[in-house]
Amino acid sequence: xxxxxxxxxxxxxxxxxxxxxxxxxxxxxxxxxxxxxxxxxxxxxxxxxxxxxxxxxxxxxxxxxxxxxxxxxxxxxxxxxxxxxxxxxxxxxxxxxxxxxxxxxxxxxxxxxxxxxxxxxxxxxxxxxxxxxxxxxxxxxxxxxxxxxxxxxxxxxxxxxxxxxxxxxxxxxxxxxxxxxxxxxxxxxxxxxxxxxxxxxxxxxxxxxxxxxxxxxxxxxxxxxxxxxxxxxxxxxxxxxxxxxxxxxxxxxxxxxxxxxxxxxxxxxxxxxxxxxxxxxxxxxxxxxxxxxxxxxxxxxxxxxxxxxxxxxxxxxxxxxxxxxxxxxxxxxxxxxxxxxxxxxxxxxxxxxxxxxxxxxxxxxxxxxxxxxxxxxxxxxxxxxxxxxxxxxxxxxxxxxxxxxxxxxxxxxxxxxxxxxxxxxxxxxxxxxxxxxxxxxxxxxxxxxxxxxxxxxxxxxxxxxxxxxxxxxxxxxxxxxx
Amino acid sequence: xxxxxxxxxxxxxxxxxxxxxxxxxxxxxxxxxxxxxxxxxxxxxxxxxxxxxxxxxxxxxxxxxxxxxxxxxxxxxxxxxxxxxxxxxxxxxxxxxxxxxxxxxxxxxxxxxxxxxxxxxxxxxxxxxxxxxxxxxxxxxxxxxxxxxxxxxxxxxxxxxxxxxxxxxxxxxxxxxxxxxxxxxxxxxxxxxxxxxxxxxxxxxxxxxxxxxxxxxxxxxxxxxxxxxxxxxxxxxxxxxxxxxxxxxxxxxxxxxxxxxxxxxxxxxxxxxxxxxxxxxxxxxxxxxxxxxxxxxxxxxxxxxxxxxxxxxxxxxxxxxxxxxxxxxxxxxxxxxxxxxxxxxxxxxxxxxxxxxxxxxxxxxxxxxxxxxxxxxxxxxxxxxxxxxxxxxxxxxxxxxxxxxxxxxxxxxxxxxxxxxxxxxxxxxxxxxxxxxxxxxxxxxxxxxxxxxxxxxxxxxxxxxxxxxxxxxxxxxxxxxx
Lengths: 482, 482
Ligand SMILES: [K+]
Ligand SMILES: [K+]
Hints:
The structure is a homodimer of 482-residue chains.
Chain A: H1 3-18, H2 22-31, H3 36-54, H4 66-83, H5 86-90, H6 98-109, H7 125-153, H8 158-162, H9 177-202, H10 207-218, H11 236-249, H12 253-262, H13 272-294, H14 300-315, H15 332-342, H16 355-373, E1 382-383, E2 386-387, H17 390-416, H18 421-432, H19 451-465, H20 469-472, H21 477-480
Antiparallel strand pairs in A: 1-2
The structure holds potassium ion (2 copies).
Residues 111-113, 220-222, 317-319, 434-436 of chain B line the site of one potassium ion.
Membrane topology (chains A, B): Multi-pass membrane protein
Family (chains A, B): Belongs to the TrkH potassium transport family.
Subcellular location (chains A, B): Cell inner membrane
């Protein structure tokens, strides 16, 4: 491990991150909301710490290797989550405890959107803006993580996409090509944010809300500046804009990149993951619509509106709300949660296991059945027309089972802290899948949970965002050997 | 498909099965419990139907092929479950509805042990005996199914054991070798039953209870002749005998076979599945013990006694009770249920996914993590010292994911009928894993569920017992395609 270079990167990262305290500080002055000190303090704490970490090692130059990549990636989210918590602890309102502040900060940066705060409408504007901005920055990190970094580490959905052998690139150095890719992706991300924000504003949000919600929409974050979330605006137009951008932001950014370069959209409809994703969203919306109408939960038109918004919001792992879906009838809360486990497409800001993995699991499950009938046939698993290599499939299986095992272990841990089953399983699901809202006692917020439970869920958010393996590998002896 | 031969086998099967109504009939006369007509009617209905099916095709002789094997295996349990239901419908007490009778009968034959009946202590002796006997016969079928038939169909844990390529035996005919293997296994099964029954009797049960409980113990069935289950006897000796035989009956019968032939027991401790199984049982017992003591649920000595019995009973998928574990504190109910998903060893009467599959999943999950650290290393998954072929591993993955998918789909179905989440998930888990008792509203019995829910659970019991694939394959078009 090249600890010195890692420290150098970490120092630089912190110094850069410290500047993210300045926009909220400006907001604080504009609205004169009294939270300015929190951001001044947060800025200096982060900047100085970063500087102190950086200065002893600033001359060190070494090529990074794959193994360093794991550590840097985990530290990126963990350390920023920690320093991002300062404003929440320092400000008068909300004067959060250490665990709550870290929870809120990590929830923002991982774009989970689970909150421990109630009375969001009454928070200082700057704190509100800061929460939204955390999500937006987190989303930016995720795009690069998903499209550029994880594939290099041999993890994640994108290498499935290319149907190549997973594993790091040949020379296992983190090449400067990242910068290039990252730039293009950020342009797309920024453009989406701007278009989304302008849309919100034209649809009737004030500028502050429009910017804030555009941040959390494209990041698939789900934080809002109102307790009632998107439901606060009670506007069909706003909901449709939100639905559109939630879907767009959970589609593989590689497809957007191609669309941007080639001025074409036909490739979307040739992509197996995209097709499966859209079909699933439509299918679940239809089921929800039927159940809501049959059970007289809402009028038919209202059912369509609520079903569309909530299914998209939960299935994309956004977590915005226009209805209390946790109390919808029959299997709907559970069904929407199941969709969350699939989550968004690979290479997007969405959470969950990623659609492409679920698609491959279904295909291989079906292949096993076919093999029983035709035991001697050689049946490849295909994506579109490309057969998928066994090595890639093994990675998918490995991911699926480790995801399930991690889910069960954390569920046991939460139950051990005394939570009821519905609260516990949905809390783990909502954090591991980076969704946000759960069922039971965490359907509105996570403030009432005990402290150990909150720490477990912080870990779950990190695990989910880092596609489990990136974080888990740090807990194995072989990672640290030699 | 060779339908005529299949019908011939089915006819013979029914005629043989009809004779299983005679022992309960004898019991009915001995105790003069008034249920005699139910068994006379059941006997003739089953015998005559079997005869009528058999007579038009009794001359047909054709070699069966793998595909026929699937259909016969599924029909075996489904048809016997159906005809086994007659006595429950005909008798005055309990005068069960159609769905309840089928549920009870299938629950017996699949050795699930979930019951819709309350007031078991007051049932006619013959009905009690019949229920226990259903489980014992079911267990007999399972041993042959697991050790001889499923491997031929390319399903199940036993072929993993041999670490050979799964898939049917070379010429894909169902050879008469089954008879030979079956005979040896039944000797072992019968011997275990006798020793267990004598043990119960010596420990203080009356002859009727001793025989009845020996039936359901070695079959890992869990039916009892008392509402309070094994707790009724309040005897440490009986509990220890029960624990011993629950463990023995969930160990691979192949190991017992070897022990019988070679007069040796050392091979048990060289078997990776056995070692992992025993360690897991001990580990979970220890956790349960600590939690029960720390939470002051029982006195320490009582905690040890209850923890040992209940962990073994639930983890082996037996489902006997000496305590209401569904209301044990913290994560214990959930943790015991997780163990149920692993279930017994391959080639035993236990339910669940089978220990060996879980072991291989854990090993391969860990391999995926190793591969991240050493991307170019070739790391085989080993069982003991034998590397496991990719084809076998794929079968395990396929099983695991299909099991999970089936679990989720049936859970959605149950929730759609209006059950609460805890009742629903535990009911699916308890039936799919052939455990018996669930949590929530099904912790005592299944009588209060609605009819659609009961049908779904009947299907779950069958799916679980037939290792999912055997039944699922019948629902694919390719199975029926010439
Ligand atoms: K989210
Ligand atoms: K059972």
